[in-house]
Specification:
Residues 1-28 are annotated as: Disordered. It is built from 4 helices and 6 strands. The protein has helices at residues 36-40, 48-70, 111-124, 126-130; strands at 7-12, 19-24, 32-35, 76-89, 92-106, 134-142. Helix content is 33%, strand content 38%. The chain has a 3-stranded antiparallel β-sheet.
């Protein structure tokens, strides 16, 4: 079974002066603006890196939540930020890293067990597997 979700983008005119919009199948984004100025300057709108960051943070956080529940933990809260690095290279640009920062509150878990479950979620969430880049994870755990 394959689950297929879609996103779309438009961009016109061509080049740095162009403006684009992005939309998602669910309507969470509908003709949301993006362009050169939102990616490389301070224009209002979105950019591919923040969308990848949101996708990675949400995928990892859900994977970790499910893994913690499977391990018997029911009470907690997870908040993740993914910072995506876009670096200038000789050939243009490349996404070189996704740095996950996690703040977690999980009742009655040891740091060692949490670290093992979190590392497994980081390595095995589908978006982590898709990204061919360095993925780091820092976490702050509060065991209630």
């Amino acid at each position: 079974m394959s689950i297929v979700k879609s996103g779309s983008a438009t961009y016109k005119p061509l080049g740095k002066q162009g403006k684009g919009s992005i939309s998602t199948e669910t309507g969470a984004l509908s003709n949301h603006p993006y362009g050169f100025n939102t990616r490389f300057e301070d224009g209002k709108g979105s950019n591919p890196e923040e969308l990848i960051g949101a996708a990675h943070a949400s995928c990892f956080t859900m994977a970790l939540s499910l893994a913690l529940a499977d391990a018997g933990y029911e009470d907690g809260e997870l908040k993740t930020t993914a910072k995506i690095s876009l670096d200038k290279t000789d050939d243009g640009y490349e996404i070189s890293q996704s740095a996950l920062t996690l703040n977690a509150v999980v009742a009655d878990i040891t740091e060692d067990e949490f670290k093992q479950i979190a590392q497994d979620a980081k390595e095995n969430c589908p978006v982590s597997q898709l990204l061919d880049t360095k993925i780091t994870l820092e976490f702050n755990l509060t065991a209630e």
